[in-house]
Every structure is written in C-alpha cells, then in structure tokens.
Design goal:
This protein is mainly alpha-helical and 462 residues long. It folds into two domains: 170 residues, no CATH class; 205 residues, no CATH class. 70% of the residues lie in helices and 0% in strands. The protein contains 18 helices and no strands. Helix 3 crosses helix 4, helix 4 runs antiparallel to helix 5 and helix 10 packs across helix 15. The longest helix has 34 residues.
Length: 462
Amino acid sequence: MSFASIDFLIFFLAVLLGTALIQRVAGGRANQAFLLAASYFFYGYWDWRFCFLLLFVTAAAYVTARFSGKRLFFAAGVVIPLVVLGFFKYFNFFLSSFEALVGGDIRTLKIILPVGISFYTFQALSYVIDVKRGKISPERDFIKLALYISFFPQLVAGPIVKAKDFLPQLHEERKTTLKGIEYGVQLMVFGLFKKIVLADHLSVFVDDVFYAPAAYHWTTLILGAVSYSMQIYFDFSGYSDIAIGCAKCLGYDFMPNFNMPYISRNVTEFWRRWHISLSTWLREYLYIPLGGNRKGKTRQYINLFITMLLGGFWHGASWTFVFWGALNGLALCVDKLRRRDGESILGKASGVVLTYCFITFTWIFFRADSFETAWAVIRGIFTAQTGIVQNFMWTYVSVCLLVTASACAVARAHKRGLASTNGYYPVVSLNKVGGLTLFFTVCGLVIALAFTGESPFVYFQF
C-alpha cells in the first residue's frame, strides 16, 4: 500500500477516525492496540507472510532486552535482527559473488525481500542497544514495543526512529488535535507534491537514460544524472514528509529526515542534512562504538570509511552500493583534512557547487544497475559522446523550484536571525487567505499534474 495511492488515503482516513473515536471512549492503551493492528494490516497489504517475520523480530527484541544484562541475551538481541536482515537481503548476493569468484554454478534460493526490513531491523537493534546502555528501561508492555517497531508511517521506508525518542511518547497522553492534523496534512500534501508531481515525472527520463546510456549525447547524460539527483531527493524527502505528517496527525512526533542537503558546502555537512535518521543511527551505533574520533586521526579516518562502506551496503545487495559508500567515505576523510576558517562568500558558494557535483557523480553508481551501466554514463560524459539530444523540461522545473525554495528558506532564516536553516516545511496558517491560497494551489497541482504510471518510492527496495 503506497502512500501515493487511493487505497492508502482510505486507510489513513479510517485510522484517523478510529483513533479519534477510541481516544474519546477507551483511552490511550486501546488506541495503541488499534494502531498496532492497523500497522500490521498496512504491512500485510503487501504480503501477509511478512507479518510473521515482523512479529518474530519484535518478540526477539522484547525478550532479549528484558535480560540484556546477561551477555548471551544481549548478543542474541543484536545477532537475531542482523541474521534476519542478512539472510533475506544478502544471502543470494553472497552466493552469486562467490559463484563469480570461483567460476562455479551454485543454485540460489528464490528469497523475497520483505519490504522495509532494513528499517525495522535497525529499530529493533537500537532498542536493544539503548536498553543495554541504560538510556531507556526495558519495555514491559509488548503492545508499546510492537507499535514502536511496526508503526505504519515509518515502517517501510523510515525515518529510522530511535527507541529512546519514540517509546517515551507511548507513555504520554498523546491525542489527535486539530492543530496536529492541520500541520500534518500540510506536510503530507507537500510530500505528495514532491513525489507524484516532481519525482515520478523525473523517473521516466532517468529510466530511459540509465537503460541505454550509450545512445545519448553527453549533455543528455549530464541532464540524466542531475535528474536523478532531483528524483531521489524529491522521492525520499517526499516520503519522509508524508510519514512525519501521518504521525503528526495521529499525535506523534518524528525527527526531520532532510534539511536542504543540496545547499551543503562540503560532504560532511551533506551527511548531516541527508537521510538524517540513518546518518545519526550510523554515527551513534556504529561510528562511535568503533572508536569515533577518540583514538587519533588515522583511526578516525578508518572508522569514517568503514561506517560509510557499511552504510552503502545497507542500501542494497550490490557492489555498486558498496562502491558508492566507499566514495562517500573517502570524501569524508578528505573533508576532515580541510581548514574552513574564514571562508569567503565565494568560497562557500563554490563549496556548494563542488559538493553538489560530487554527490551527483556518486549518485550515478547508486542508480546504475551495474558497474557497466555506471561506467557507460561516466565514459559518455567525459568523452563528449554523441547521440540522442533530449532536453527534459521537468528537470529544469525541478531545479528552479529547488533553487527558489532554498533561497526563500535561507532568506527566512536570515530574517529571523537564525544561525542555520531548518528545512523548507512551508506550513502555513489556514486561517489566512494567503495560507489557504497556497495550500489549495498545491492540492490542485497534485491532482492536475500527478504522474499516473507505476512508480514506487525509491527506498521501498531497501
């Protein structure tokens, strides 16, 4: 059940109405049980068999965290979700890689990748680890823990919500409010605009370019790479906005997952602004346990590289993802060597341009289905390849909108005396004519310009 579907709209309205009624009649725990049932229905809509795997991961986290003081239970709490993730996501990858290495013929299993498995296994891990570290107490109410791991707004593509941030909310009296619905619905509408008006239209051109890169002119290949940088941003940030908006309507708060990443002046800043929930998760549960920056510069660079390498591997069972992670890891190490004291305005601007160019270059490996495809795109660009010239209007529209929104957000932050920008989130007052006009204009654009083809969210595959 995709967020960008009529089925989800009906489902969400039913859940919102049911939540409001149950809160009035029965109270918080009954409402949590209702949301848990709704979340499992939402997940089972893809394939009901996946619900048993989700329940198994949840039960394992519940039991092992209760006894995490014992090494065996804590080890089991960490190993079980990793084994589940490794088997379903990487088993055939390792077998096929071994087959290519030895030149044999190994029969692989037809393993279906459960949607969202990378996200809910990470949430189960964060819960067990946070309990072990003493940051939260073991959750005795199974319904609360199960709802934390399976809450449908973030279940299949994030944001990755940490236990220490969400479980305390389940112990509070959280209710749906008109203010929360007003805020949440606006985020959902703007997220839909990003997804089905911008990202989905861009995907048509991107798919064509990456399907046969040898057929296109080098300028079209550059436009294809830029288009993908826009597509993946609008697609994933749009999903995150919808997820955050859904949770807000139901009375819960998620952390922002994107903060204007393409205005970053360096790669370090980019990873503080892009997929923030994953970046902070990797930092807290991988980079710091490896030693972080506490054991000297050399060890810091090694830790950064390993973290990004594994971060790339988390995205998919392909060597192109590993290479993408390695490129970003090397860039982070190089970035740590630079001094930024007293940067001029020109230096900051050039930093934004260079960072965007580098990130767009790495996206080529992220999008390509193989190294052959990636090299074909890169070779075509740097050899000034001739071929089909195509100017795709949606790319120019998307870039203009992003640049305009970025300029407005920076100006707004400067006007308010803020040290840094805090995303777009153009939440307006619906009690004013200007706010209503903007909101219904975007609603009209979503309806009129929506892409009607089949285009699932990019991060569903992870």
